[in-house]
Amino acid sequence: MIKTLNNLDATILLWINSFHTPFLDQFMSLISGKWIWVPMYVVVFMVLYMRIGLKPKLLVVLSTIGIALFFSDFVCAEFIRPIFNRPRPSQMGSGINHLVHIVNNYRGGDYGFPSCHATNSFMLATMVTLLFRNKALSIFLFFWAIAMCYSRAYLGVHYPGDLLAGALWGSGVSIALYALVNRFCTLTEVKGAKHTRYISIAGMATFVLLLVVAAVRICQGA
Fold this sequence. Notes:
Layout: H1 2-18, H2 22-31, H3 38-52, H4 56-84, H5 116-132, H6 135-154, H7 160-182, H8 197-221
């Protein structure tokens, strides 16, 4: 059973990884970057501040997000991955590394189950969805999280199973922590916050910027 699932995982990964072009190589590499999305994270903080103000509840909300990040990122990388020790498809131990298209010589670390990129992006998408309860914002954030996951498979550094496990772990952390904290401090007061569209605008602007940068890189390399 496990062998069958691993073979299916590898087959889907190689299928996604096969649709590579010079432009997509650059674009997916940029999407996968962590720091490029900092402006969107800052806007999330700004919207929370505009809704809550400098009150103790703002500290509670930010602490909740921070603790969720700790469990999604640190626990994933330092505790869960060492248990499974599953090599990334781009690494020699995977057995398929010679079939994987590598972009910019990027192979990631040794192990990739679960994916911290998937964990963190779905943690944030789920937590912000629970806080703001805004349909349009939720659709954008989960689109962003899925795009982040797709970029990791495209780059050949994560199997779909790594990404699915990461998405479930990140979403689960947010749901559990939100429910726990909300029992003692009503986080749902953030619901209906104004200016939530600024988060989507910041995210979409980043996507457009990445498209432009990818195109410029291709032109410069031509």
